[in-house]
Design goal:
Blueprint: H1 2-13, H2 15-52, H3 63-74
Length: about 80
């Protein structure tokens, strides 16, 4: 019981300091909540964007153009083949 009385007296003795500490803890807690909500919103936006993207590609070889190029090169005409 003595411990609780002494702790209560100590809190009441320095009200200004305790209010200031409480205010600082409150500001830190609010900042932490805001930071976590921004991080979660960014993660959700990233996931939604990646889900919305549908990247499709098709790589084909134009055999007719290749044959025409090789025929022209054999005849000494046209551009040299690209390496």
């Amino acid at each position: 019981m003595y411990l609780l009385k002494n702790a209560f007296r100590n809190v009441m003795r320095s009200k200004g300091r305790n209010i200031l500490i409480g205010l600082i803890i409150f500001i830190i807690a609010i900042s932490l909540c805001i930071g976590l909500s921004i991080r979660q919103a960014a993660e959700n936006a990233r996931e939604n964007t990646l889900e919305g993207l549908s990247i499709t590609a098709e790589i084909t070889v134009d055999r007719n153009a290749m044959m025409e190029n090789s025929m022209a090169n054999q005849n000494g005409e046209g551009e040299p083949p690209l390496l």
